[in-house]
Specification:
single chain, alpha+beta, four-stranded mixed beta sheet, 12 helices, 37 strands, elongated
Length: about 700
Amino acid sequence: MQREVQKYNLTFCGEIRDGHDRGQAMLRFGETLGIDEQKRIMRFFSGDLVTLRRNLSHDTARRTARKLRKAGLITYIEPITEADNDPAANSPLPPEEASTESVVEAPETPPTKPAPAPFLDRSARAAKPNLYSLRPFRNNAQVRSRASRARQVARGAAAVGLFAAVALLLLGIRYLLLPAPAPLPEITALATSEQGALTVVSAEQLFLHDRSGRPTTSIEAQAVSLSAFEHPVFYAGDELMVMGRAIADAPASPPALFRCVEAANECHQVLKLDENVTLLAATGSSSDGALFLLFASGDLQRFSASGELEAQVMVDLPAAPQLQLIDGLLYLSSAHAPGLSVLIPDRKQFGEQVDEILLLADGAQDLSARVGMFIRSGGHWWSVVDKGPEGQSLQRFAADFTFLGQQPVGDQPLLVSWQDKALLGEVGSEALQRVNAAGEFEAPLEATSFLASRDAASNARTRQNLFWGIGFALLASIAAGAFVLAGVQHLRSLVYRHGEGNGAGNLDQYADLVNWVRLNPGRDSVFHRFLRFYAITCTVVLIAAVALKISVLGLAGLLLICIGPAAALIILARSPGGHIGRMDDQLLLVDHSGTYHWASGARIHYRSHFLLIDDVVVYLGNRHLPLFDPVPLNEIVPLINRGIKIQRRAVVVRLLQARHPLIKAAATCGGCVISGGLLVSAALLVSLLS
């Protein structure tokens, strides 16, 4: 008894192949099917699935499909089901023109295979790829030579990495041998003249200002042949006197006192001191140019304007002595009480004490406090009093030494009289507080020339550090990248050392025999839920960061960190997931790029959530994001179990080789997270340093 031959329908839903003009394709469609009317042709391109021919043999269906494919159309060959018994159903052709060919052919012997299970659906659009867009995996010469080429690249990359590592080591040694960077300029002292000139002192430069506080010029220590400017710096009349060491006498040059001329931008030596003496305080006379120097030995000396010793006397020293010439009398911080010792500055009676003035706050009983800096400005006296464990305070007194008020100051205060105001600062500060005679703070005075010099030095140091940092980062990146590349290529050589199997054959003749595993219909909704949840979480984190007043750099880093996983999810959501089919005992895999391969037994590889046949990799998803319907997927488990479980490194190499969306997503996420982490770390470092 002759068995009934399987018949097929040829269906079409208006799809045009890439690279074909729609108008030309519609014209050829009409010519192939013998349809002349344009309106009738348009009905076939509405997007609805229609049946072009029914009850065709497999060969006839394939021939017709090839003709239409050459015309630029995409058609589908589907086996007839009971629902297709009506020849005119679902066809825009009139019943008399709908083909119902029933050619009796020789009985076909179908391949031996299990009956298709209801959950392995050959006709479901969600499971079946577009067969015309697929391409087979080919085991060509380039594929067969991958192991040897990978070994060559690995050796070359290892050599580059080794060279970069050696260069990095040498650069690091050179960096360690560099001299310690000079500290940034900072204000170390202030000096003012009776005419209102102001000099801001740093170790490297003198910044001169006029009586309004406007910068006039600057004098660099190196430019006047001095290694640095040292304490004290003071005015003798309108002449600026500085301590320093001549570069020509280095390295063990003795200290000397120099007179600096602003107009000529020069400094001339006035007095050379012994190496074993330490100058603590100094002041000068505006009338005859006499110089008064107080040494650490307690020796108070008077010199003429030309540097000749005229008189000297021994005095008792407090911890931080200050010397001032005011109204023809020499005032010295007292060594015995919180007050001032008044001495005679003349040569004949030089150093004789004529008075002792106590500077006591209201109700003060402790006489152990000592006066350090002091000035007279605007008819008032100002003094910095050291109270031991209680710290230092700035006290203000009236002309008759009546206490007016006090306030705390830092450990290294700067105090000078400038016209009718007091200038108060701190060693290392960038702005000077102006205080009037009533003790009220006015607008601070910014030494703009000093700030410009400090910014220039800071920028130079930043450029130098940036240069070294770029060098280290570049070499480290080259070394790390080369070694990573060498490692990956070494893994590739190990994975591909046994070569590849046969390439895939033509799928056209087996297309109707493939049972396709249904895709998970809820895949897109799962991705959308993940994205919504993640977007809400990142929004909350960024709002919290803004509320905590995170810096712009930190916010940029957090934003990058948030973008990384979101971009990875978008890449995965927009990338094809691949397809899985079964032909008898053969497993058919179609990857994300449309490359297909089939195999059975040991040529099927698997690991965790991945199926592989040579370079064709299909990701199955996980329990949170299943990409395939789990019920039909279980039906191919027996085929998978006949395969080989491979190592993780082999899966990674295959994913890299296939440029799988998982690798693209991981690279995007990792790059954003690492970059964001670096920005956040930089923001934290800046916060700590500030």
